[in-house]
Structure formats: C-alpha cells, structure tokens
Design brief:
The chain is an alpha/beta fold. The strands form six sheets. The protein has a five-stranded antiparallel sheet, with helices on both faces. A hairpin with a 5-residue loop joins strand 4 (about 150-155) and strand 5. The chain starts with 16 loop residues before the first helix and ends in a 10-residue tail after the last helix.
C-alpha cells in the first residue's frame, strides 16, 4: 500500500467492493503507482484493422446505436467508445471540443485500456466484472484520469461470451447520481446491440423474444433464445438465463445450450404454445411474454456456374429488347464473387448489413465491380421489392444534385419543373439507394444525407413538410475518405456513419479465382450476343491470366464482348483477343512464365504457428500467403488456440 500513501484519498464508505479490489490489484498484482502510469499503447491503423476483423459484424451492428447514444448524451458526455474483449478501442465518437484532451490522454481509436497497464478504469473493470458500472473521476487509479468519468456496459456474444464494452466518457465534473442515469442508458444500448447481433447470428433459426412486458416496444427490455428444428436451445442471451431460471448476473447462459425449453420451464407442448396468438411462460421471475421469429425459407439454390447450363437455358435467361437484340442480364452474386475465399467472407458480411438497412461502403479500384455488387445485393436481398436507385455524385452538377436527391416542389427555383419532382431518395423508398463516388458529394449536402440516415425523413427543396423514407444505403468511392475528413472536405460524423461497415473489393489481378471469372465473363458475353459459346485455347487463356487487368472486371467484360463479336471459330485463339492486351501481357511476363500460385494450407496448430512466425505475426501477410481473409485467419487462430507469445517485460 506504500504506493497509495500521499495520493488521492478515496472515501471508503462510498467505494464498492469491486472498485476497491481493482485498486488493490493495481498495486499488489500489477505493481502500478497512480502518478506513474504510462500512456496507453495505441495500435497502428493496420493493427487496428486486423483487430476489428474478428468482430467486424458486431462493430457494424453497433454503429447506429452508438450514434443514437452519442446524440442523446451530448450534453453530459463527449466521447462514446466501443472496445473489444481485450480493452482495445475499435469504434470511437467524440466532438471537436475535446480533441486535444483525448489526444493528450491517448483516448483514441486503437488505445488499450487493460487493468494491468492502466490500473482501475471503466473498461478494465467491466472486462473483469462483466456488468454495467461507473468509474467517477478520482475513482480512476491513474491521477491523470481523475478529471474523467466513465460509464460502461458489457456486450455479450455467442454462448454468453463477452465480446465488447460500450463506454461513455464525460470529460468534465460530474457525480454518481448523474452517472447512475447514464449507466441505465448505456446498459440499454448494450442490450439492443446484443439482441441485433444475436438475431443476425441466428437468422436461420427459430428465435424466441422474451420480455416481462407484453408490448415489446423496446428491444433493451427483451431477452433471446434460439432453437433448432428439434426444439433444443442452441444459444441464449444472459438476460434469458436470468428470466427463465432466476440465476445471478454473472452466470453464463451456455448452461442452457443443448437443453429443451420444456426441461427448463413448465411449458407443456412447445409447438402448441408458440402457435398461440400471445404465448406466455412462467419463469422464476414471473410471467414471461414470448414472440416468435421464424427463419425465412431458404431460396432455391442456383447453379453456381454459367457453363453448367445448357445453351437453350442460357438463351432463355436473356431477354429481347424492343429493337430485337438481346438485353444484358445483370450478373448474379455467384458470378461476381466466384470462389475467392476473401470475397466470400466479405459477401457474407455485406449481405447481412444490407438486409438490416445498415450503411455499406464499397471501396476498390475503378472497374472492380462496386456498382455490379451493389445491384446484385439488392436483387438478392429482402429489399428487392423496392427500387434500386443509382446516383453518381461526381457526374451531377453541384447545383442540381440536391434537387436530384431530395426532389423539389413547383417553383422552388429557376428552371424547376412546374409539377415539381419527387427526387431519387423517394424512388429508393423500401429499396436500395446506391451513391457512387460519394467522396464528391458537396459538403453541405452531406449534412442533409446524415439527417436522413438518422431520422428517416427529409424536406424536399422549397417544401415545408418532411417526407418519410426508408432505404438500404450502399455507397462507393475511389477516394480516401479519411484524408478528405482531415482536409475538411468530408464530414467526420458522416464518415464514421459510413466507414463502420466498409467492404474493400480486391482488384481482379489479386483474385484467386481469376481463371473462373474469365470463363464466366466469356460465357456471359456469348449468352448476351446470342451465339454458341466458344472454348478458350490454352494460349489465349495464358495471356488472359498474365494480364494485369488495370480496368478490373469492367475491362474483362469489354475484352469478352470484343472477342464474342469478332471470333467465328469454336476455339478462341490469340487472333481473337485485342492486340494491345497480348502486347502488355508479353511485356510483363515472358513466354513460359506462369502465374504464381497464391495459396497454401495449414491443417494443425504447429503449421499455423510456423506460418505466423515466418510472417512475423503480420496477420495481413499470413492471410495473403494462405489466400484467405484476415477474418478467416483470426477464426483459424482461435480454432487452433494459436496466440502470439507475450514479450518479456
């Protein structure tokens, strides 16, 4: 206790046992002193991206709730953060008035707030106690943090495992009474995030929503159970365990997994119960109201490869335009994604985000398929009954883009249509809005877009009454939005709203399924031209594989259409390919040189550990050598229980 002598005193009657124990651990176990706490470590941008990968979905689902919490508490708190299960800040919102303070205290994205390094903090204590709590001003162990107050709540994932901590920080004087109110709001937000994450994890299972109230008007008051086809529990949120069994706060709901609901509570015939209009069950804490979410029917599987279809079915798949020529058919998700592991992982996340109407940002080189992917996500998702509206923000004059998006009433401005115009946003209602080159959207208009995303309504140009609208937003850009934010050319709040769910599309030359994509492009070109598909010669295939494809998928489709137009043989030879393409391929790769293999496999912990050490524990480099995404590699590391050795102190 010598380290505490002469330091900030804590009034013992006001200190709870958990807080006092944390202070004691900080001194006796971690050897820390309040006045000598080092600045927290802060991950680099690349390290932060790797850290986000395993919980990318949870982070994306948290974004709207974090925005709402930030807005509701703006008068009382200046920072809202989401940390992972190791105390690393992965999502961060703050206002401009505390930028310097945050920077000085290293309260930043990527900062690490573990108890063993920083002593008693809200995040560190929540990771240990796994319950909502507040650390008010001088209750922080580090003297330099005595001006802050942190109110936190845990977020639980599969089988009740802690996956994150939601943290609201006030950088001004406050007290326990106010933080008690804030704590209730933070805990409710954490519960909503848990439930949304749970619903998406078990989208193909029957989900029981449990509540003490029969109106189900607030997701924060609900618990969740997921059942398999046999009525056994496959997952549950912690509140479900407490409602059903009356267990304590720290009990894990995994004790329910594998058991039938009827073995836990007396419900009789579960199927008959759940078919009632307003089913209820009796738990340890009284009557529990139940609502059932049934899994959607699985869509009939489509043939994954065009070349497996007969010529007759291919021709039937295309439609005749009014001029008598065959119209182009938009590529399906299978055609765009192929069998590339990284793309498959990214597609899975994109589909879930789009289905939940969460903003999705597509980034990648020109021609890599951003527009096609946006349209395919719409056509393959739950919003396909609405319209797909695509707007290129760089192609519309700045003075017209506002009325183009939001519409206008009659006479709103010089040249306005007499009858007014509804605007493209309204055309996307109940559908999908795709904003290409969003980095070129005028700064003033970005604020209006943010308001639509937050409030679900807008006022047309020249009108006074708001119009309600709901759509899934997909945006795309070639530009570095973060740099535009630093230059003051893109709103920071809109950037955080969009960048929480970013999907980076790899260039065509880095795709591990390039050969398959080439085959599909040539098959589709023949289909659209209404001709018999020709087989690629080995020489032509080699040239196509050696090409760098600077124009990506767009360039590949153009080459395929060019070839379909001029080739009159059953085999596509070099003479049917564009001459410029052959010259570029030969210049880059002399004859006889083959395209290098990009993947290898690991099947045990020792091999994976060896690979990680060879890659100097650079997850991006190791994932590239395996030909998989960072998220997939993180899952394999967890599966084989492979961890980076700790550095000696």
């Amino acid at each position: 206790m010598a380290a505490l002598e002469g330091k900030r005193p804590i009034q013992m009657p006001n200190v709870n046992a958990g807080l006092l124990a944390s202070w004691m651990r900080s001194v006796t176990e971690h050897g820390l002193e309040p006045d000598r706490i080092q600045e927290p470590d802060v991950l680099t941008h690349a390290e932060l991206l790797e850290r986000r990968a395993p919980i990318e979905e949870m982070s994306a689902f948290s974004s709207p709730e974090i925005d709402r919490l930030y807005q509701h508490l703006s008068d009382h708190a200046q920072v809202v953060m989401l940390s992972d299960a190791q105390g690393v800040v992965i999502h961060f919102r703050s206002n401009s008035t505390v930028v310097d303070t945050c920077s000085a205290l290293r309260v930043l994205p990527g900062s690490i707030w573990s108890e063993d390094k920083q002593g008693t903090t809200g995040v560190g204590l929540c990771l240990r106690e796994q319950k909502p709590l507040s650390i008010v001003m001088a209750e922080h162990f580090a003297t330099k943090l005595a001006g802050l107050s942190c109110t936190v709540a845990p977020i639980f994932g599969a089988e009740g495992r802690l996956v994150g901590v939601l943290n609201v920080t006030a950088m001004r004087s406050t007290d326990h009474a106010l933080q008690g109110v804030v704590r209730e709001m933070v805990a409710n937000s954490a519960r909503r995030i848990e439930n949304v994450f749970f619903d998406r994890r078990h989208a193909r299972a029957r989900i029981l929503r449990l509540s003490r109230h029969d109106d189900f008007c607030d997701a924060a008051a609900e618990a969740r159970l997921a059942l398999d086809d046999n009525g056994r529990i496959i997952d549950a949120t912690p509140p479900a365990l407490r409602l059903l069994t009356g267990s304590t706060l720290n009990d894990r709901p995994d004790v329910l997994i594998g058991r039938k609901l009827s073995s836990i509570v007396d419900v009789g015939n579960v199927e008959r119960l759940l078919q009632e209009a307003a089913p209820t069950i009796n738990g340890k804490q009284g009557c529990i109201h139940v609502r059932v979410t049934e899994p959607p029917r699985r869509a009939a599987s489509r043939a994954p490869q065009i070349d497996m279809l007969s010529r007759a079915s291919r021709l039937a798949a295309s439609t005749l335009s009014t001029s008598g020529t065959r119209a182009s058919v938009a590529p399906t998700l299978e055609e765009i994604v192929g069998s590339d592991t990284a793309m498959l992982d990214r597609l899975r996340i994109a589909q879930r985000l789009h289905a939940r109407c969460l903003p999705l940002l597509l980034q990648g080189e020109s021609g890599c398929g951003k527009t096609q992917l946006a349209r395919a996500l719409h056509e393959d998702g739950p919003h396909r009954s609405g319209g797909f509206v695509a707007i290129n923000c760089a192609a519309i004059p700045q003075e017209l883009i506002e009325s183009e998006l939001f519409g206008h009433r009659s006479g709103a401005f010089t040249g306005a249509a007499k009858q007014g115009a509804p605007g493209r946003l309204l055309g996307a209602n109940d559908g999908t809005l795709f904003l290409d080159e969003i980095g070129d959207m005028p700064l003033g208009l970005q604020g209006r877009l943010l308001q639509v995303l937050s409030e679900g309504e807008f006022v047309p140009v020249g009108a006074t009454q708001p119009v309600k609208v709901r759509f899934a937003l997909i945006s795309a850009t070639l530009r570095d939005l973060k740099s535009l934010v630093q230059e003051g050319r893109f709103r920071e709040d809109l950037y955080y709203r969009l960048s929480g769910a970013t999907l980076a599309l790899p260039p065509l030359r880095e795709r591990t399924d390039l050969g398959q994509l080439i085959e599909r492009a040539f098959a589709r070109a023949a289909l659209e031209a209404g001709i018999e598909e020709s087989r690629l010669s080995q020489a032509a295939r080699d040239v196509l594989l050696r090409h760098r494809w600077p124009g990506n998928i767009r360039e590949l489709q153009h080459v395929a259409k060019f070839t379909a137009a001029i080739n009159d043989s059953e085999v596509i030879g070099l003479d049917a390919l564009p001459a410029s393409l052959i010259e570029q391929a030969d210049a880059r790769h002399p004859a006889g040189q083959t395209r290098p293999a990009a993947t290898r496999t690991v099947s045990d912990a020792e091999s994976l550990l060896d690979l990680m050490e060879q890659s100097h524990w650079n997850v991006s480099a190791a994932a590239a050598r395996l030909g998989i995404s960072r998220a997939t590699l993180h899952r394999r590391l967890n599966e084989f229980d492979v961890h980076r050795p700790r550095k000696p102190h």
